[in-house]
Design goal:
The chain starts with 10 loop residues before the first strand and ends in an 8-residue tail after the last helix. Helices cover 35% and strands 19% of the residues. The chain has one domain: Alpha-Beta Barrel (TIM Barrel), CATH 3.20.20.150. The chain has 286 residues and is α/β, with parallel strands linked by helices. It is globular. The chain has an eight-stranded parallel β-barrel with strand order 1-2-3-4-7-8-9-12, surrounded by six helices. Strands 5-6 form a two-stranded antiparallel sheet.
């Protein structure tokens, strides 16, 4: 299966409005690493402004856009004004879809950033998040998919795999599966790192996210923290390689390594492009 199978986007890079135009110019100047990139995953807040030149630059590169919404509370209350702003931006960029991490990212008008709260892993919380996803899809007029968030602690009767599948099933939406976040969930909840072969969410996976992380010694065990610029550990790439076998053909894979050195980015792009090129679906089991 090639990365373009089933109309897939292939390999993407996570960017922001601060750096996307420069990356586009690098691609147009013949950068060999960027020549392997098939799309852009653009992090956008509702109050951002899209530069007038950007849609043309992206089109010249041949890069479709996925909009990664920032600071949308899928697990509590939605702000219709913020969604209206997000819609204008997504329309200007002709976004393939929107996506956002589950959880609580804003308290009133204050962004929580690294102090965000994960969702409660309960059936009731899953229903509320799903209802918010449906509302987002209706207001934005484009597909809206959910991502498993960074987790430093967990409360509720479900685990993250169960919760993510429950939200996506109830909302009839796609899943953005973040490898680093899932590895971090297991490390920070002291549960075995796994790749759940029989997981009912696999058919809904639309994109894999791949980014660096760090382990920090706090107390008697290492604590996982999100650290996008860090080099990808071999174990994480093994996880991604297996995930590509369970995900639908043509699933996209996005490198979120904003801030990483050119050498780290080049190594990551090369390795993930190789994984996409040779990915084969896992055998179907009863």
């Amino acid at each position: 299966m090639t990365s373009a199978a089933a109309g897939g986007l292939g390999l993407g890079v996570g960017l922001t409005l601060d750096n996307v135009a420069g990356v586009c110019r690098g691609r147009l100047a013949g950068d060999e690493v960027l020549a392997r990139v098939g799309y852009v995953n653009l992090g956008i807040r509702h109050d951002d402004i899209v530069p007038e030149e950007l849609p043309g630059l992206l089109a010249e590169c041949g890069w479709p856009v996925v909009v990664h919404a920032i600071d949308i509370n899928l697990s509590t209350d939605l702000d219709p004004e913020q969604l209206a702003g997000l819609k204008r931006l997504g329309d200007a960029l002709d976004a393939r879809w929107y996506e956002e991490d589950l959880g609580v990212w804003v308290w009133q008008r204050m962004s929580l950033g690294l102090h965000h709260l994960p969702p409660l892993l309960t059936a009731e919380s899953a229903e509320r998040s799903a209802a918010n996803v449906v509302r987002c899809r209706e207001l934005l007029g484009r597909p809206f998919h959910v991502e498993n968030p960074p987790v430093h602690y967990a409360e509720g009767e479900l685990d993250m795999w169960q919760y993510l599948a429950a939200v996506a099933e109830a909302a009839d939406c796609g899943i953005i599966l973040d490898s680093g976040h899932l590895i971090g969930y297991h490390l920070n909840t002291d549960t075995p790192i796994e790749l759940r072969a029989g997981w009912p969410g696999w058919p809904r996976v639309r994109e894999l996210h791949i980014s660096g992380f760090q382990l920090v010694d706090l107390g008697d065990r290492p604590t996982w923290i999100d650290q996008h610029p860090a080099a990808l550990p071999a174990g994480q790439l093994d996880w991604v390689e297996q995930a590509l076998r369970y995900a639908p053909p043509g699933v996209a894979a996005c490198l979120e390594q904003d801030g990483a050195s050119e050498a780290v980015v080049a190594a990551s792009v090369t390795r993930v492009a190789e994984l996409l090129a040779v990915a084969e679906p896992a055998p179907v089991t009863a």
